[in-house]
Design a protein that fits this description.
mainly alpha
Length: about 140
């Protein structure tokens, strides 16, 4: 399946998810919090009194990454890489937290895809596999 077709299917899924899920942020955050319990406190701390604004920015970034993956995967790879040791060492933000929201967003959106929509599931599987590889490359300093 061509990347343009995968992107079309991803857009279709995202549209469906926004119709089915009133507040897309809530299930993404619940999944993220379950995997990384310290994330909630980090949003409170780094949100400077506006953690909802920080969550909204995260959601914008993860939707951007999902919409961009098949057109410009290198751009998403850059966003998934911790830019420097600063966030981890100074701000106590784990490197895994950069990819965690995207993984949670993919999971939550893919859950809305009907079981018989095999092409749509294949597009999400391709994105999930590509993101997983990109995370591993970022984590271990590998190049594609």
């Amino acid at each position: 399946m061509a990347d343009a077709e995968k992107l079309r299917l991803i857009e279709q899924s995202l549209f469906r998810a926004t119709e089915q899920i009133e507040d897309f942020t809530a299930p993404v955050m619940a999944r993220l919090d379950a995997r990384y319990p310290a994330v909630a406190a980090s949003f409170e701390h780094h949100g400077l009194g506006k953690p909802d604004k920080l969550r909204a920015e995260m959601m914008d970034n993860l939707i951007y990454c999902m919409m961009t993956w098949f057109e410009r995967p290198d751009e998403v790879r850059i966003l998934l890489s911790a830019p420097s040791p600063l966030p981890h060492e100074t701000l106590h933000v784990q490197a895994a937290w950069y990819a965690g929201p995207l993984q949670a967003g993919i999971h939550v959106t893919a859950e809305t895809v009907p079981a018989d929509a095999t092409d749509e599931h294949a597009a999400w599987d391709a994105m999930r596999d590509g993101i997983r590889l990109a995370i591993e490359e970022a984590r271990f300093g590998l190049t594609g």
